[in-house]
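Predict structure. Chain length: 383.
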Amino acid sequence: MILPGEWLGLMGGGQLGRMFCQAAQSLGYRVVVLDPAPEGPAASVADMHIQAEFDDEEGLLRLTRQCRAVTTEFENVPATSLKKLAKHCRVTPGAQAVEIVQDRITEKAYIASQGVAVAPYTPVHSADDLRAAGAHLFPGILKVARLGYDGKGQARVHTYAEALAAFEEFGAVPCVLEAMLDLQEELSVVMARGLDGQCKVFPVASNVHDHGILAVSTVDIYPTPFAQRATQAALAIANGLKYQGVLCVEFFILRDGQLLVNEIAPRPHNSGHYTMNSCVTSQFEQQARVMARLPLGSTQLLTPVVMLNILGDAWYTDETDTQTEPDWSGVLAVQGASLHLYGKREARRGRKMGHVNCVGNTLAEAIAAANRVVSLMRLPVAP
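Prediction complete.
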């Protein structure tokens, strides 16, 4: 066990890292962040910032000298770096699990090996792979196998010619071609798996995306009809990976009732931000508990909740580049609304700047509060 007062390490300096720092510090830990940027959301609140690339030998050595356990705030930290760190300290999640989910091709193969269904797809390494793709994959979505997130590195394609053009635009890097599906709903399961294999699962969130970026997550006291199936599938995936840490599994629900895994995120997730105001333990506190070998906290939902993502678009009132500060006073006047801003200096369109959690005694109350915030901030999607 790593006791409060000791140091925990974090690879990555974004907003997930910022919220991890704050949760770990509330438990009494000090946090050192390794990130190449001179400043950032996590570095601004961490107790120490090591400015270095994620594969920098000296930076990694300094990190292990400072702390006994290290975690990550995004999935693209080099697995080789995690392996080097693991020679000197505890690393959660481990390199083996992260390596699998860093690549969509290996990720999908792994998920299928656990008896969990994924959308019809084919790996794409060359133009010949696209030519061989079956008609059932069109229309489809071509996704780069590595380093894609929030809709980046993706293209909707209806024909082989469109798929080939997108493949070449991506630089002919390995991709997957997935069939476009008739979706009824998108769900996510956020969970924590401890060093001893114990699992704690948060209530299942129902999600709405806008242009490939999560816009709204809704969680009710009464679970969605698909919650049990999704939870069991997520547990199978986590146990198969021998995962240690916080994990999110995203699901598609088709109109015919099929449950399919979209992807895995080996870290806290945007759709788990609701836990900060509506659960006994937040996903970020759970992350620190796993690292320190503390007992996992309760994931009980205390109140219905709607999480609203705030992008930099909220600073723009029209199509011009003129920025106007959002009505924070109005947002905070909404009963049940809690504002979480990430400390980013510049608001840009499509950039995640914060989120608002809206709670209520009933789901209807939470939705009503969220709708008031949507109206005040001119957010693109209502719950």
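Summary: The chain has a mean pLDDT of 96.
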